[in-house]
């Protein structure tokens, strides 16, 4: 199993001491310049404001909040909207940044064309895309240059391309059993991709990523992760995967009707790993440090690409058992994010 520990991807206006990536450019909307939250201003009910998050599940992203009541301008040391749920309702990251928040169920969308982003990264070796609706993804890797300089260059350090659906070929073709299903079964898109690539000896690089639109559907990107990959052990058979669903069933006692309200869900995975004894302490350290850090867990190897084996979440519980002379066992329970 591989683990990708992502860097936070920040808006250009946010600077932090920790290692992070920065959104250099995007063809989706723009960073807000008006209606930015001001603690000295007065607001009326339902007024929208924008706030640059410095913590929480939308860290590094511009988010929108809506006033729940009239708010005066004379308050002394008012808390910021994330810390003031009595007066402010969180509306989520703006469209430009939804692919960089820590919610799998939110999407950056473009109904009319491709989505193109440029990200400045620090010392990464892996990239991942989750819950995406796009025909293919093209990646260009440059040195520490601006997007304008990259666009003017005739060569790149590295390239990559991932095909999620090619013409009328159904990617998950193992689900197709006969010609009737080929022509009439709904397309099953490959939505989760994780991969490692060589970035040379550069500490700072620019990634230009193009998500190409499927002809009849809007281009949607759920999550983009950039970071470093670690191999923690060999996944064993008897893996349990599934979801925890937050949908609701409402029963009308007067008419006896049922109404189903679709809610969010999160993936789960319980698995066992075989770990070399020389790496037990390293794996223990990695798993302990990641207990509250959203991370990508990929149980696939070079021969598989199962979406169910890719979970973006945290290790809820793990146990290491040094059972053999050269190898140990690890029982791992992963809880995904909604």
Write the layout of secondary structure elements.
Layout: E1 2-6, E2 9-10, E3 21-26, E4 48-52, E5 62-67, E6 88-93, E7 108-110, E8 115-122, E9 126-130, E10 136-142, H1 147-152, E11 158-163, H2 179-184, E12 193-196, E13 204-212, E14 219-221, E15 223-231, E16 234-235, E17 240-245, E18 248-252, E19 257-261, E20 265-276, H3 280-289, E21 295-298, E22 310-321, E23 327-336
Parallel strand pairs: 2-3
Antiparallel strand pairs: 1-15, 1-21, 3-8, 4-5, 5-6, 7-14, 8-13, 9-12, 9-15, 10-11, 10-13, 16-20, 17-20, 18-19, 20-23, 21-22, 22-23
Your description of this structure?
The structure is a single chain. This protein is mostly beta strands and 338 residues long. Among the domains are: 121 residues, no CATH class; 106 residues, Elongation Factor Tu (Ef-tu), domain 3, CATH 2.40.30. Strands 1, 9, 12, 15, 16, 17, 20, 21, 22 and 23 form a ten-stranded antiparallel beta sheet that branches. Strand 22 and strand 23 form a beta hairpin. The two termini are 22 Å apart. About 3% of the residues have low confidence.
């Amino acid at each position: 199993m591989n683990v990708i520990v992502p860097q936070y991807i920040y808006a250009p206006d946010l600077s932090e001491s920790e290692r992070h990536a920065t959104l250099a450019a995007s063809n989706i909307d723009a960073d807000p310049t008006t209606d930015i939250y001001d603690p000295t201003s007065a607001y009326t009910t339902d007024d929208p404001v924008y706030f640059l998050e410095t913590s929480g599940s939308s860290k590094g992203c511009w988010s929108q909040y809506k006033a729940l009541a009239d708010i005066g301008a004379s308050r002394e040391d008012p808390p910021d909207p994330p810390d003031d749920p009595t007066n402010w309702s969180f509306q989520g990251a703006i469209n430009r940044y939804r692919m960089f928040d820590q919610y799998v169920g939110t999407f950056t969308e473009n109904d009319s064309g491709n989505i193109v982003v440029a990200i400045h990264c620090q010392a990464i070796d892996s990239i991942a895309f989750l819950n995406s609706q796009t025909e293919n993804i093209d990646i260009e890797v440059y040195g520490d240059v601006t997007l304008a300089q990259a666009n003017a260059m005739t060569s790149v350090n590295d390239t990559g391309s991932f095909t999620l659906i090619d013409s009328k070929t159904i990617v998950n073709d193992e689900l197709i059993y006969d010609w009737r299903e080929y022509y009439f079964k709904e397309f099953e898109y490959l939505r989760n991709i994780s991969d490692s690539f060589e970035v040379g000896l550069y500490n700072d690089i620019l990634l230009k990523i193009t998500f190409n639109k499927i002809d009849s559907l809007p281009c949607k990107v759920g999550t983009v992760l950039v970071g470093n990959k670690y191999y923690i052990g060999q996944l064993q058979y008897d893996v349990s995967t599934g979801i925890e669903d937050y949908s609701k069933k409402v029963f009308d006692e007067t008419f006896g009707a049922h109404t189903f309200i679709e809610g969010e869900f999160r993936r789960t995975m319980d698995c066992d790993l075989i770990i070399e004894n020389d790496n037990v302490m390293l794996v223990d350290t990695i798993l302990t440090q990641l207990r509250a850090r959203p991370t990508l867990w990929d149980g696939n190897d070079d021969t598989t690409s199962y979406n169910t084996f890719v979970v973006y979440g945290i290790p809820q519980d793990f146990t290491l058992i040094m059972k053999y002379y050269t190898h140990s066992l690890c029982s791992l329970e992963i809880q995904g994010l909604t």
